[in-house]
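We include the pair:
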Amino acid sequence: MKIRIGQGVDVHAFSVGDHVILGGVRIPHSQALAAHSDGDVALHALCDAMLGAAALGDIGRHFPPSDDRWKGADSRDLLRRVDLLLKGDGWSVTNADITLVCEEPKITPFAGQMKANIAADIGLGVADVSVKATTTEGLGFCGRGEGITALATVLIKGW
Protein backbone atom coordinates (compact mmCIF):
# COMPACT_ATOMS: atom_id res chain seq x y z
CA MET A 1 0.00 0.00 0.00
CA LYS A 2 1.14 3.57 -0.76
CA ILE A 3 0.11 6.71 1.08
CA ARG A 4 0.40 10.35 0.05
CA ILE A 5 -0.48 13.72 1.52
CA GLY A 6 -2.06 16.55 -0.45
CA GLN A 7 -2.58 20.19 0.33
CA GLY A 8 -5.00 22.62 -1.29
CA VAL A 9 -5.69 26.32 -0.95
CA ASP A 10 -8.48 28.43 -2.43
CA VAL A 11 -9.45 32.07 -2.08
CA HIS A 12 -12.53 33.95 -3.26
CA ALA A 13 -13.44 37.59 -2.81
CA PHE A 14 -16.83 38.69 -1.62
CA SER A 15 -19.33 40.16 -4.07
CA VAL A 16 -22.98 41.17 -4.08
CA GLY A 17 -25.33 38.50 -2.72
CA ASP A 18 -27.13 37.18 0.32
CA HIS A 19 -25.38 33.87 1.03
CA VAL A 20 -22.19 31.86 0.67
CA ILE A 21 -21.84 28.17 -0.02
CA LEU A 22 -19.20 26.43 2.09
CA GLY A 23 -18.77 22.67 2.31
CA GLY A 24 -21.92 22.34 0.24
CA VAL A 25 -23.98 24.27 2.82
CA ARG A 26 -25.87 27.46 1.93
CA ILE A 27 -25.09 29.94 4.69
CA PRO A 28 -26.99 33.24 4.97
CA HIS A 29 -24.57 36.16 4.73
CA SER A 30 -24.56 39.80 3.69
CA GLN A 31 -22.42 38.95 0.65
CA ALA A 32 -21.72 36.12 -1.79
CA LEU A 33 -18.41 34.78 -3.07
CA ALA A 34 -17.36 35.84 -6.58
CA ALA A 35 -16.59 32.79 -8.70
CA HIS A 36 -17.16 30.99 -11.99
CA SER A 37 -18.79 28.08 -10.13
CA ASP A 38 -20.71 28.34 -6.84
CA GLY A 39 -17.57 29.70 -5.13
CA ASP A 40 -17.31 26.99 -2.46
CA VAL A 41 -13.74 27.65 -1.33
CA ALA A 42 -13.83 24.73 1.12
CA LEU A 43 -14.60 22.16 -1.55
CA HIS A 44 -12.28 23.79 -4.10
CA ALA A 45 -9.36 23.56 -1.66
CA LEU A 46 -10.33 19.97 -0.89
CA CYS A 47 -10.42 19.07 -4.60
CA ASP A 48 -6.97 20.60 -5.06
CA ALA A 49 -5.61 18.68 -2.07
CA MET A 50 -6.98 15.41 -3.45
CA LEU A 51 -5.72 16.04 -6.98
CA GLY A 52 -2.32 17.15 -5.70
CA ALA A 53 -1.90 14.08 -3.50
CA ALA A 54 -2.60 11.83 -6.49
CA ALA A 55 -0.38 13.99 -8.79
CA LEU A 56 -3.37 14.63 -11.07
CA GLY A 57 -2.99 18.38 -11.46
CA ASP A 58 -5.37 20.92 -9.99
CA ILE A 59 -9.02 21.89 -10.10
CA GLY A 60 -8.40 24.49 -12.83
CA ARG A 61 -6.97 21.83 -15.12
CA HIS A 62 -10.00 19.58 -14.77
CA PHE A 63 -12.72 22.25 -14.51
CA PRO A 64 -11.30 25.40 -16.16
CA PRO A 65 -13.16 28.66 -15.59
CA SER A 66 -12.80 29.31 -19.33
CA ASP A 67 -15.17 26.38 -19.98
CA ASP A 68 -18.84 27.41 -19.73
CA ARG A 69 -19.80 23.84 -18.76
CA TRP A 70 -18.58 24.70 -15.26
CA LYS A 71 -20.30 28.11 -14.97
CA GLY A 72 -22.38 28.05 -11.79
CA ALA A 73 -21.29 24.44 -11.12
CA ASP A 74 -22.23 22.80 -7.84
CA SER A 75 -18.89 22.18 -6.11
CA ARG A 76 -20.24 19.00 -4.52
CA ASP A 77 -20.54 17.64 -8.06
CA LEU A 78 -16.94 18.70 -8.74
CA LEU A 79 -15.82 16.96 -5.52
CA ARG A 80 -17.57 13.73 -6.53
CA ARG A 81 -15.93 13.92 -9.98
CA VAL A 82 -12.50 14.41 -8.39
CA ASP A 83 -13.13 11.44 -6.12
CA LEU A 84 -13.93 9.31 -9.18
CA LEU A 85 -10.70 10.48 -10.85
CA LEU A 86 -8.73 9.39 -7.81
CA LYS A 87 -10.50 6.06 -7.56
CA GLY A 88 -9.91 5.48 -11.28
CA ASP A 89 -6.20 5.97 -10.63
CA GLY A 90 -6.21 3.54 -7.68
CA TRP A 91 -6.44 6.06 -4.82
CA SER A 92 -8.93 6.71 -2.03
CA VAL A 93 -9.08 9.43 0.61
CA THR A 94 -8.60 8.24 4.18
CA ASN A 95 -9.21 11.58 5.91
CA ALA A 96 -9.64 15.27 5.16
CA ASP A 97 -8.94 18.37 7.24
CA ILE A 98 -10.28 21.77 6.14
CA THR A 99 -9.70 25.17 7.71
CA LEU A 100 -11.75 28.20 6.69
CA VAL A 101 -10.18 31.61 7.30
CA CYS A 102 -12.75 34.40 7.69
CA GLU A 103 -14.18 36.85 10.16
CA GLU A 104 -17.73 36.21 8.92
CA PRO A 105 -19.86 34.19 8.52
CA LYS A 106 -19.45 32.11 11.64
CA ILE A 107 -18.63 28.53 10.61
CA THR A 108 -19.22 26.46 13.76
CA PRO A 109 -23.04 26.27 13.45
CA PHE A 110 -22.64 24.79 9.95
CA ALA A 111 -19.51 22.65 10.36
CA GLY A 112 -21.41 19.44 11.16
CA GLN A 113 -23.44 19.60 7.95
CA MET A 114 -20.31 20.42 5.95
CA LYS A 115 -18.58 17.36 7.40
CA ALA A 116 -21.62 15.20 6.59
CA ASN A 117 -21.74 16.48 2.99
CA ILE A 118 -18.04 15.86 2.39
CA ALA A 119 -18.13 12.43 4.01
CA ALA A 120 -21.12 11.40 1.88
CA ASP A 121 -19.58 12.73 -1.33
CA ILE A 122 -16.24 10.92 -1.02
CA GLY A 123 -17.28 7.83 0.92
CA LEU A 124 -15.82 8.61 4.33
CA GLY A 125 -17.18 8.44 7.83
CA VAL A 126 -18.04 11.81 9.36
CA ALA A 127 -15.30 11.17 11.95
CA ASP A 128 -12.77 11.14 9.09
CA VAL A 129 -13.57 14.73 8.08
CA SER A 130 -12.56 17.84 10.00
CA VAL A 131 -13.99 21.30 9.27
CA LYS A 132 -12.88 24.20 11.40
CA ALA A 133 -12.41 27.94 11.16
CA THR A 134 -10.11 30.67 12.30
CA THR A 135 -9.95 34.43 11.95
CA THR A 136 -6.99 36.65 11.18
CA GLU A 137 -7.85 39.02 14.05
CA GLY A 138 -8.74 41.74 11.57
CA LEU A 139 -5.50 41.45 9.58
CA GLY A 140 -5.23 41.08 5.79
CA PHE A 141 -8.01 40.76 3.22
CA CYS A 142 -9.83 38.07 5.22
CA GLY A 143 -9.63 40.20 8.35
CA ARG A 144 -11.02 43.20 6.49
CA GLY A 145 -13.99 41.08 5.36
CA GLU A 146 -13.01 41.10 1.69
CA GLY A 147 -13.14 37.34 1.15
CA ILE A 148 -12.57 33.83 2.46
CA THR A 149 -9.56 31.53 2.29
CA ALA A 150 -9.76 27.75 2.65
CA LEU A 151 -6.92 25.35 3.39
CA ALA A 152 -7.30 21.60 2.99
CA THR A 153 -5.09 18.60 3.71
CA VAL A 154 -5.85 15.01 2.79
CA LEU A 155 -4.24 11.64 3.23
CA ILE A 156 -4.83 9.20 0.40
CA LYS A 157 -3.98 5.53 0.07
CA GLY A 158 -3.48 3.41 -3.00
CA TRP A 159 -2.24 0.04 -4.13
